[in-house]
Specification:
three-stranded antiparallel sheet; binds 1,4-dihydronicotinamide adenine dinucleotide
């Protein structure tokens, strides 16, 4: 619904809906009720209805949801019907692992360049994309539209490099370096910190172990 504010909490749940619906589609499921979807996703049916009502529902009483339609609509809401070009800055362990991952293309994210400061990496090809030196980046960005830069460089280097690449006109940073970037508000920064996920596991495990100990197990 144009103009309607959708809460960030709902937006953050959409990729999960998208993933489940994608799996249903792969299994040739044509329609699904909010109850069935809720059982699969382990959330309440009312949450599903509320979330999807934000976008005008897409469901019909007594029929449920048309899986393909819902999948396509959520994809559009997430902007996944578009194509984005992605570059990776820092071709070390993580940068190369990301570059080797093919599923991003399926979601519309196309790897267009990989950059590093290390001359020994120059020219190495990962899935057909050659690692270039950082000196080429400004020229590359002038000649090619770059939507997103993944930052997989040491944290000491990340804030300065992030500033330089946003000055070149890149407006979205997928930041893997464990540091806050503090960029202008018109730059999209998505932080991915696996260590923080591990800390959340640690928190829950700690409680679990403590309750086991107190049960004498
Ligand atoms: P790595 O040392 O294997 O790779 C870093 C690469 O960055 C090297 O190839 C190096 O030459 C390059 N580099 C250094 N300064 C640069 C600059 N100014 N511009 C361009 N390239 C530059 O390190 P690794 O393991 O790949 O980690 C990379 C970053 O990702 C680190 O900040 C690390 O803490 C972080 N990391 C984050 C994770 C997460 O969950 N977000 C998980 C693993 C690593």
């Amino acid at each position: 619904m144009p103009g309607k504010e959708i809460s960030l909490a709902v937006i953050q749940r959409l990729p999960r809906y998208y993933r489940y619906l994608g799996e249903l589609l792969e299994n040739d499921v044509v329609r699904i009720s909010s109850k069935e979807l809720s059982e699969r996703m382990n959330v309440t049916a009312s949450q599903i209805r509320q979330d999807l009502n934000n976008f005008g529902g897409f469901g019909q009483q007594g029929y449920g949801y048309n899986v393909e339609y819902l999948y396509t609509e959520i994809g559009k809401i997430l902007g996944l019907d578009k194509r984005y070009s992605l570059i990776i800055i820092g071709a070390g362990n993580l940068g190369q692992a990301l570059a080797n991952y093919t599923d991003f293309e399926r979601r519309g994210f196309y790897l267009k360049g990989i950059f590093d400061v290390n001359p020994r990496l120059e020219g190495i090809s990962i899935r057909g994309v050659e690692i270039q030196l950082m000196d080429n980046l400004a020229d590359f960005v002038k000649k090619n539209k770059v939507h997103i830069a993944a930052l997989t460089i040491p944290k000491m280097k990340a804030p300065q490099t992030a500033k330089e690449i946003t000055d070149m006109g890149i407006k979205a940073i997928w930041n893997f370096a464990p540091v806050d970037l503090n960029l202008p508000s018109d730059v999209i920064v998505e932080n991915v910190h696996l260590a923080e996920s591990l800390m959340r596991i640690s928190y829950t495990l700690k409680d679990l172990e403590a309750s086991r100990d107190s049960d004498g197990n």
